[in-house]
Structures are given as C-alpha cells and as structure tokens.
User: Which sequence fits this backbone?
C-alpha cells in the first residue's frame, strides 16, 4: 500500500495511491487505515512530504562502500545525528542553495517512517513499529560539515530534508536497489543489503536513546557516490519498490 500526504482544495489529507488516483483517508494512517469513498485524480492534487515528523534521525557511515569512500572505519554502533523538522520538503519542492554554503551535496537514502510510539524496542519487534518506507535526500553543506567538525549546521538548513513521494507499507527493506541521478546521470547505485545496520536494528537502537513518535523518520544512510549539486540541477532518488523522489536546486 502506498500512503501519500497531499493538498487538495486548500486542505491537507492523507490518502492511498491507487494507480493514477488517490483515495483520501479519514484521519491519519497512525490512527488506522480508513479510506473514504471518493477517488481523486493524482494529477489534480499536490503531493507533500509523506509525513510531518517531530524529528528526523539520520545515520552517518551506514553503508560499507560509503565508509570506504570516506576512508573511515566501519562503525561499531550506529552513528546518529538529527535533522530538524523545518528542513522537510516534499517531491518537486525546491532545494534552496544557501549563500553561505560553498558546496552542496546530495545523499540518496532509504528512510523508515515510524508507525507508533517506540521506546526500548527489541530488534526482533522493530518491524511492528514501522509504518513503511520512503525515499530521502540528506542534503549536506559539505564545506560547513568539514569546517564545523559536527553536522548540525551542515545538515539542518531549511529544505535539506526532501522526502517522498509516498510511504510504501508492504516492503522488505533488506535488499532494495537504491539509485541517485543528477540531471539524468547515475551518480549512486547500491543495495540496502550493504547497510551496516538494518532498518530494524536502527529502530531498536534509536528507541533506546530517544522515544520515537508516530511519523518520525529514520534516514538509514547513503551509499558511495555522493557529490555536489549546483543551482539549476535536478536530483532524483529512486528506490526499488517505492518510487522516485525528484527535487531541483534553486538559489537562496
């Protein structure tokens, strides 16, 4: 099932995507899936970020090939950081290149959407707390990241957390093809089987640090091939079984 969040007739709703249409839900998917009788043409609604999270927990160095690319040792436990909710944008919304940034990078990722409140969850029960999965771009001011030595500012600008286009609820996340394209050219290509820590391990680990709330997002890390974007570029994160997240870069 594909669950989207959308704007139609001035109202924000969740809905189930069915082919070229969308069936609005009564309430949110965190309260139960209760679709209405009406069906709207997908082309007549504006897709938004599939959730509005209280927080985004992101991962550094969670692909073996990316750790090798960055000449870093494989971590012995997940390396997590936070991106603010104000960084979230949806599909086709612009990524703003801030004037204070010297190099802006894409990082295509698989993201976990939390379905219910999670605290101290055992790894073997983590799947029960996951609503589904979506595409994510961990936009990064690379020069600031290197200069600061920690990642909050470099990862936290407005528009630095594109996600979408929807949540896929029926998916095995353990071996999905993930690709990132820049202006139609393939830049990243890997499989989630190369993750060091699986989505289930991450939900468990993070829930032992902080309580995860319905709609929170865990971005599982990026594979090798990260690189810079320029004003006017178009970046696409494509994940098998989910779809394609597309955003363009504009000048701040």
Assistant:
């Amino acid at each position: 099932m594909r669950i989207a969040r959308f704007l139609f007739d001035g109202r924000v709703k969740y809905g189930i995507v069915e082919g070229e249409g969308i069936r609005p839900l009564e309430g949110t998917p965190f309260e139960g899936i209760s679709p209405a009788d009406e069906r709207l043409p997908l082309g007549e609604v504006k897709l938004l970020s599939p959730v509005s999270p209280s927080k985004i927990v992101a991962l550094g160095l969670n692909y073996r090939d990316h750790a090798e690319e960055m000449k870093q040792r494989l971590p012995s436990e997940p390396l997590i950081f936070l991106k603010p909710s104000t960084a979230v944008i949806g599909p086709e919304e612009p990524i703003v290149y801030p004037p204070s940034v010297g190099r802006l990078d894409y990082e295509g990722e698989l993201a976990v959407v939390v379905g219910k409140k999670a605290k101290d969850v055992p790894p073997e029960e983590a799947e029960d707390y996951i609503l589904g999965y979506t595409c994510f771009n961990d936009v990064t001011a690379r020069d600031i990241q290197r200069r600061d030595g920690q990642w909050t500012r470099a990862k936290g600008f407005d528009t630095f957390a594109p996600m979408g286009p929807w949540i896929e609820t029926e998916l095995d996340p353990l071996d999905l093809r993930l690709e990132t394209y820049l202006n139609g050219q393939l830049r990243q290509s890997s499989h989630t089987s190369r993750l060091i820590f699986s989505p289930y391990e991450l939900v468990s680990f993070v829930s032992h640090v902080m309580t995860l709330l319905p709609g929170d997002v865990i971005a599982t890390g990026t594979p090798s091939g990260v690189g810079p974007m320029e004003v006017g570029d178009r970046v696409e994160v494509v994940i098998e079984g989910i779809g394609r997240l597309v955003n363009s870069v504009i000048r701040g």
User: Anything to note?
Assistant: The chain has two domains: 2-47, 56-251. The CA atoms of residues 130 and 145 lie 30 Å apart.
